[in-house]
């Protein structure tokens, strides 16, 4: 199973340069405005509550824009990511913005060992597009619980498994279920030379390692896994928007949330993302 780690790590290493230069990530605004936070963190800011002084770990942090945002909201945060290239970029952004953030290269399942000297934490944060890279959601929930102190909490904002089960944008504009909703033993294998953002001036947009392995996890599977590892669910909200054009021209910008997109027609048909919060009981 570790083959999936090498495959996905190579893909994310290749994506990093594209993302660093992309207008969607817009790293320049974090450098120029010390108050700027990411759209993803801004969306959930009312749900995050007061982060001042909390010890937090951001799992699957990528190039650190959400991590920096948590830091700017007062958290003492460590970022963890599979990709050495992404962690290098995140460290550079922290250096350029004067943020005291530690970053660790590790896959999620090995995070407890990688963070053995600094755990437990008050908060585990995970953002959009993370769980689909993990083959075993129960094992993930065990990692989350092991990283938290008693009374510590998980904050998860993620793409909805219903959205990820849909076929790619179709000419007939139907929302058709094509891919697994529930976790499967075998991964979904993709071979794509593009990423989910546009190419900036400093990148040629090329991805050499085009293959990825991904898994979907049903909402019930995620909740049950957390309950099984001693977590108490304190909040679960489903949203009609997601922070990328998941369904192409079938989506439009959300009028109230910058960077979010929702269906242009009959948006009540689809939960596109969700926010889940949980507390470690003991």
In a nutshell, what does this entry contain?
The protein has about 280 residues and is of the alpha/beta class.
Describe the protein in words:
The chain has 282 residues and is of the alpha/beta class. It is built from ten helices and twelve strands. The strands form three sheets. It has a seven-stranded mixed beta sheet, with helices on both faces. Helix 5 links the parallel strand 1 (55-59) and strand 2. The protein is globular and about 50 Å long.
How would you describe this structure in keywords?
single chain, 282 residues, alpha/beta, Rossmann fold, 7-stranded mixed β-sheet, 3-stranded antiparallel β-sheet, 10 helices, 12 strands, 23% strand
Total discrete domains: 1
Main beta-sheet strand count, sense and barrel state? 7 strands, mixed
SSE-based structural type:
alpha/beta
Number of helices: 10
Overall helicity: 25-40%
How much is the radius of gyration in Å? 18 Å
If classified by CATH, what would the architecture be? 3-Layer(aba) Sandwich
List the topology elements.
Elements: H1 3-20, H2 27-32, H3 39-43, H4 45-48, E1 55-59, H5 65-72, E2 76-81, H6 84-97, E3 102-105, H7 111-114, E4 121-126, H8 137-147, E5 148-159, H9 161-164, E6 188-191, E7 211-214, H10 219-228, E8 231-239, E9 241-242, E10 251-253, E11 261-263, E12 273-280
Parallel strand pairs: 1-2, 1-4, 2-3, 4-5
Antiparallel strand pairs: 5-12, 6-7, 8-12, 9-11, 10-11
Helix pairs in contact: 1-6, 8-10
């Amino acid at each position: 199973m570790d083959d999936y780690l090498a495959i996905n790590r190579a893909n994310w290493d290749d994506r990093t340069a594209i993302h660093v230069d992309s207008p969607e990530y817009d790293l320049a605004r974090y450098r120029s405005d010390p108050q700027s936070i990411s759209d993803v963190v801004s969306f959930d800011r009312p749900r995050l509550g007061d982060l001042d002084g909390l010890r937090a770990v951001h799992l699957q942090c990528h190039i650190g824009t959400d991590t920096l945002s948590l830091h700017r909201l007062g958290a003492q945060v460590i970022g963890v990511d599979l990709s050495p290239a992404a962690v290098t970029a995140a460290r550079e952004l922290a250096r350029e913005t004067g943020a005291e953030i530690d970053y660790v290269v590790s896959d999620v399942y090995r995070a407890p060992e990688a963070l053995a000297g600094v755990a437990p934490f008050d908060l585990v944060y995970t953002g959009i597009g993370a769980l689909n890279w993990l083959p075993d959601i129960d094992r993930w929930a065990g990692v989350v619980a092991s990283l938290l102190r008693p009374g510590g909490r998980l904050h998860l904002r993620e793409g909805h498994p219903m959205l990820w089960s849909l076929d790619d944008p179709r000419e007939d504009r139907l929302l058709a279920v094509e891919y697994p909703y529930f976790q499967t033993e075998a991964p979904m294998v993709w071979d794509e030379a593009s990423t989910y953002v546009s190419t900036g001036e400093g990148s040629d947009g090329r991805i050499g390692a085009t293959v990825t392995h991904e898994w979907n996890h049903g909402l019930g599977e995620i909740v049950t896994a957390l309950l099984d590892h001693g977590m108490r669910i304190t909040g679960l909200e489903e949203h009609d928007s997601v922070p990328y054009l998941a369904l192409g021209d079938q989506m439009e910008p959300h009028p109230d949330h910058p960077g979010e997109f929702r269906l242009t027609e009959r948006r009540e048909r689809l939960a596109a993302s969700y926010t889940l919060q949980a507390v470690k009981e003991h």
